[in-house]
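Colleagues,

For the teaching module next term, I've prepared a clean inverse folding example: a structure given as tokens, and then the sequence designed for it. I'd like students to try predicting residues themselves before seeing the answer, so please don't circulate the second half yet.
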């Protein structure tokens, strides 16, 4: 495959992504796709459409981590880690050295293992009442890129991230901005975020639509919160 991606090549890569974002797709259907084909083609498809979420998360995490004095050897949980695109950037470009990965798809995690970046792997579903296997206050921070889409991770998963991240730690998430409106589950995302801030579980540092596109001509949305 050519490294240059023209319009029609982008459309070709977008076919795989559309299967993962199909309206009404169920969690089981998604896992079937991630386990059986997406894990092979994922990186190529995402790079092919100019996917920026892992870069956004890394950039905003680093900006606020430096401001808050969170060190480069902080223990960071990469949630919905997929094939590990996020951690490769966090480590190689920004110098964060201690990363664990969690994802519901073993095939995606197997790819993430090949990056050689992560220390520990946890194959588990989160959200919708499903919990992470880690103890309270295990991590210095948590990041998530692309975990919020149709049929993917439900809003209550953030309560689990708040639970496993130590007070003072960051939670940084990047998603497609339109999913706030297009995915019914996420109509409740910002109201939940606000409620948890009012309950002093966390504080909002920023919500931002990055100046460059999430992929293709679609906006991204980055959430930065600090656990209280
Ligand atoms: C679009 S990929 C993002 C992967 C990676 N963070 C990136 O940016 O390239 C979404 C990932 O979320 C995982 N996932 C979807 N629903 C999940 C759930 N409920 N619990 C845990 N992982 C889930 C999928 O297995 C998949 O690897």
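(Answer key — instructors only)
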């Amino acid at each position: 495959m050519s490294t240059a991606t023209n319009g029609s090549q982008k459309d070709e890569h977008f076919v795989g992504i559309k299967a993962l974002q199909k309206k009404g797709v169920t969690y089981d259907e998604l896992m079937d796709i991630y386990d059986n084909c997406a894990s092979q083609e994922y990186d190529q498809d995402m790079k092919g459409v100019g996917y920026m979420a892992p870069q956004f998360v890394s950039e905003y995490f680093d900006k606020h981590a430096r401001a808050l004095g969170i060190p480069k050897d902080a223990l960071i949980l990469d949630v919905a880690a997929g094939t590990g695109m996020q951690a490769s950037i966090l480590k190689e470009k920004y110098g964060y050295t201690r990363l664990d990965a969690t994802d519901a798809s073993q095939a995606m995690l197997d790819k993430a293992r090949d990056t050689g970046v992560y220390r520990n792997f946890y194959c588990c579903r989160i959200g919708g009442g499903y919990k992470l296997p880690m103890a309270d206050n295990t991590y210095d921070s948590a990041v998530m890129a692309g975990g919020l889409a149709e049929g993917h991770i439900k809003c209550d998963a953030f309560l689990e991230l708040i639970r496993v991240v130590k007070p003072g730690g960051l939670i940084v998430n990047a998603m497609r901005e339109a999913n706030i409106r297009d995915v019914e589950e996420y109509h409740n995302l910002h109201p939940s975020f606000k409620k948890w801030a009012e309950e002093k579980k966390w504080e909002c540092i920023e919500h931002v639509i990055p100046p460059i596109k999430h992929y293709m001509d679609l906006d991204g949305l980055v959430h930065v919160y600090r656990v209280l």
